[in-house]
Amino acid sequence: MSTLMRATGTFTKLLSPSSHSFSLRPSASLLTRHQMSTEVENVITRLKNSGLLRSQGLIAGKWVDAHDRKTIKVCNPATGEVIVDVPCMGQKETNDAISSAFEAFYSWSKLTATERSKYLRKWYDLLIAHKEDLGQLITLEQGKPLKESLGEVSYGAGFIEFSAEEAKRIYGDIIPATLPDRRLFVLKQPVGVVGAITPWNFPLAMITRKVGPALACGCTVVIKPSELTPLTALAAAELSLQAGIPPGVVNVVMGNAADIGDAILASTQVRKITFTGSTAVGKKLMAGAAGTVKRVSLELGGNAPCIVFDDADLDVAVKGALAAKFRNSGQTCVCANRVLVQEGIYEKFANAFSKAVQNLQVGDGFTEGVAQGPLINEAAVQKVESFIKDAISKGAKVLLGGKRHSLGMTFYEPTVIGDVKSEMLLSREEVFGPVAPLLLFKTEEEAIRLANDTNAGLAAYIFTNSIQRSWRVSEALEYGLVGINEGIISTEVAPFGGVKQSGLGREGSKYGLDEYLEMKYVCLGNMNSN
Ligand code: ADP
């Protein structure tokens, strides 16, 4: 059966409420199921027509099912509706994908940089040409507002464009020789087959920022997207094929995460693993990579401080903190996790910030004007609830929100909590939801101490009008990225990555390519012989 027919079958099922394999929470939903289905139906029809709704894995350029035909369901988090079934793959399919990438590596790595660059450029053009489709797919399976999804497509495609450009600038080196009859060179060569494991919060961008530089350097890849959001990955892979990127260069498997991860770790053909996700899984992968001494890049959890000093411009601070906290409903690893506010501006900031948060419209990501979609699943809501309960039990005050949204499902009210202290869970761990905890501090030294009092070290934000303070605090923060008077700073041209337990390595920028390159020293001797 063709993919389209499989998919169409699933869509017909989708429209019949009785076939849903989910249950709405009893408190759910002001949005009626009929309204939601019509919206989803339209989106799916458009995606089907564009050929981007793929529901199989990609191995050696072929769309394939799991060997035992097992499937998993991909759902729309805003409604719980099943969008489509995808294969539940494991060790066997992963090994097939690795073999395919290994085989393709030989010819892909032998292409000239210009040839690889052209393929990547074509892929970028197709991603942009299908921006609307991809944006809808992201909202459909991940839930974020369509405007944010479209932003993710531009951002994600940017990594492919940047990689196409940088592919031509992977220079080696000539080192002045220490002996007259020698010449010393450094070659940069691709590491080989790369295993890329990605999360659900940026279904496209977390893939392109790994695969773009990998392909530019001459590596081939086995991608394992999150089982919650595999459809965007599959659509991007489809476009890589349409761009002419040869079969086997890009492979996608999904299903049993631990089995797939183990197969990647065990393989001696996979020379590098690149991962974005939780710190717990990242540590497992790092330990597992020791068996074959694989190279490892990790983008793990953060605990971003957002520091508002007395001398900040209030409007800039409110706008920046809002963007840093509530993007993707608080579900990014660079989201402000703690808002540290100096005592002189605390009251004013808390009021203005709460007012701005109150204006954030919650709803289905396809609805015009919505700024906050659902959380990814029930577990995410329960985590938020437990963190808030912990904070309240220790003396924190709910200034706004603090409960599930009346829309039901996994919608949660944008929330501001005051009087938060550093021993509360809200300060210690990533809440990964639409909750802004406010902590009061008195001095710059105290702010730095509080900000650095964590094992994480990904993003930090500061708001101040003092140039000297901007430098002082940026230098003192133990973080990989610092935004000064800005809440959203990620871009493909700058290095992204953490220190401490937030990870290893950098993605994006010219530095990101180093992660996929080996350095080889070549010594040419006996220069005087013929
Ligand atoms: P999150 O909390 O963001 O879902 P996870 O670390 O659980 O973070 O997931 C990130 C990615 O890691 C997903 O693709 C997930 O399927 C994958 N993953 C989870 N557990 C494992 C594992 N044991 N081995 C390999 N990949 C895993």
Layout of SSEs?
Elements: H1 3-15, H2 33-49, E1 57-59, E2 62-64, E3 71-75, E4 82-87, H3 91-110, H4 113-129, H5 131-142, H6 146-166, E5 173-175, E6 183-190, E7 193-197, H7 205-217, E8 220-224, H8 230-242, E9 250-252, H9 257-266, E10 270-276, H10 279-289, E11 295-299, E12 304-308, H11 314-326, E13 336-342, H12 343-358, H13 378-393, E14 397-400, E15 415-418, H14 425-428, E16 435-441, H15 444-452, E17 459-463, H16 467-476, E18 481-484, E19 503-504, H17 509-514, E20 517-524
Parallel strand pairs: 7-8, 7-10, 8-9, 10-11, 12-13, 12-17, 13-16, 15-16, 17-18
Antiparallel strand pairs: 1-2, 3-4, 5-6, 6-20, 11-19, 14-15
Bound molecules: adenosine-5'-diphosphate.
GO molecular function: succinate-semialdehyde dehydrogenase (NAD+) activity
InterPro entries: Ald_DH/histidinol_DH, Ald_DH_C, Ald_DH_CS_CYS, Ald_DH_CS_GLU, Ald_DH_N, Aldehyde_DH_dom, Aldehyde_DH_Superfamily, Succ_semiAld_DH
EC number: 1.2.1.24
How does this model look, in words?
- The protein is an alpha/beta fold and 530 residues long.
- The protein contains 17 helices and 20 strands.
- It has helices at residues 3-15, 33-49, 91-110, 113-129, 131-142, 146-166, 205-217, 230-242, 257-266, 279-289, 314-326, 343-358, 378-393, 425-428, 444-452, 467-476, 509-514, and strands at 57-59, 62-64, 71-75, 82-87, 173-175, 183-190, 193-197, 220-224, 250-252, 270-276, 295-299, 304-308, 336-342, 397-400, 415-418, 435-441, 459-463, 481-484, 503-504, 517-524.
- The strands form five sheets. It has a seven-stranded mixed β-sheet, sandwiched between helices. A six-stranded mixed β-sheet has the order 9-8-7-10-11-19, sandwiched between helices. The protein has a three-stranded antiparallel β-sheet with strand order 5-6-20, with no helix packed on it.
- Strand 8 (220-224), helix 8 and strand 9 (250-252) form a beta-alpha-beta unit.
- Bound molecules: adenosine-5'-diphosphate.
